Amino acid sequence: MPIISDFNNLASRHEIITVIMPAYNAGQTIIKALKSIIAQSFKDFVIVVVDDASTDNTWESIQSVADPRILSIRLTENQGNLAIRNHVFKHSQSAYITFQDADDWSHPERLQKLHTILSEQADLALCGSWCFNVFDTEQQLKRYPISHTEILENIAYGATNNYCSASAMFRREVLESVGYYDELFNDIGSGDIDWQTRVTEQFTTANLPEALYYYRQHSESFSKSRKHPLSHLSADIAYFCHLLRKNGIIYSKDEIIEFIKAQAGITNAPVKDRAWQRMLLVLLYRLSPEKLRNSVVARRRKKQTQKWIRAYNQ
Q1: Are 51 and 44 in contact (CB under 8 A)?
Q2: DSSP assignment of 113-126
Q3: Measured distance CA(271)–CA(233) in Å, rounded
Q4: What CATH number belongs to 4-224?
Q5: What is the rounded CA–CA span in Å between residue 78 and residue 84?
Q6: Which residues are paired to 169 by β-bridges?
Q7: Alpha carbon distance 176, 6 (integer Å)
Q8: What pLDDT digit, counting tens, does each position of 39-69 carry?
Q9: Which of 155, 228, 265, 301 has its CA 20 to 30 A from that of 114?
Q10: Rounded to the nearest 5°, which phi and psi values hold at 241?
Q11: CB contact set of 135 (below 8 Å; sequence gap of 6+)
Q12: What DSSP character marks residue 224?
């Protein structure tokens, strides 16, 4: 279990920005991640770095980096990325909160640029940035929609990847309206997509058109190493939760079924409509996970979706 007194120590920290860094078996990468934050041009921050019961040398690597702005916590039982973030959300006193994954690193101006735009634009609640996807031998620029209008248009189309999640910075008061991460996504993934979509539904958000974050792509990364059989559908589930909220539907199995039955009255729903496909995919996840795992593969998704639409229209 977490050592709650350590999280409680955040109550006495009043830096302008809290940087959250969960870490699990990140001994080979976390020093670079920590140093990229320590080297930021913006200096008024606290890094809450949490060793989530690692079995490698993560804790020793954390302790090797000396800086009074590092608040390190070591857990004796694995809690998961989202649970750790929620603990920090509860105790942080900073005006702004952001993230740093333990296997990535940040541009030295990231905190400064995000803090500046949030400070200057009072209506802006969350701001992210573009990033570089880092492979073994190359870096690829990843662009995201810039304005809030563009982000909303993406969501309406069915897109879920609207932010470089770890680069985003937000105002702490957002938590009062949006709440914390839904730990339903702790094992399957896409918790960032769910939470940041909830923020976007209620507040103005944006992305800076600058690459301020370096996202390492490798098979052991947190986002690629999950073994849960529903991980490949996690973004669909997050998007479907958005559709439920949009339509005022409660997150229960019975409500999901009734909602989809009502939607089945749209007899001419186009197969290319991604929102429709997502609703059907997640309905089958709720009702028959085994059927979904056995039938949904990329090359058959369109054909299978046509069958589902016909079945639910009967």
Answers
A1: no
A2: HHHHHHHH-TTEEE
A3: 18
A4: 3.90.550.10
A5: 10
A6: 98, 127
A7: 23
A8: 999 999 999 999 999 999 999 999 999 999 9
A9: 155
A10: -60, -35
A11: 217
A12: T
- Within the chain, what is the greatest distance between any pair of CA atoms? 66
Q: Count of residues for the chain?
A: 314
Q: What does the domain layout of the chain look like in residue ranges?
A: 4-224, 247-313
Q: Which helix (H) or strand (E) holds 244?
A: helix 234-246
Residue (of 263, 294, 300, 298) closest to 280 by Cα position: 263
DSSP character at residue 141: E
Q: Which residues pair with 46 in a beta bridge?
A: 18
pTM across the whole model: 0.81
Sign of CA dihedral 116, 119, 124, 128: positive
- Token pair belonging to 197: 């979509």
pLDDT value for 104: 97
pLDDT in tens, 198-228: 999 999 999 999 999 999 986 554 444 556 5
3-state per-residue secondary structure call for 28-60: CCHHHHHHHHHCCCCCCEEEEEEECCCCCCHHH
User: What is the pLDDT averaged over residues 111-135?
Assistant: 97
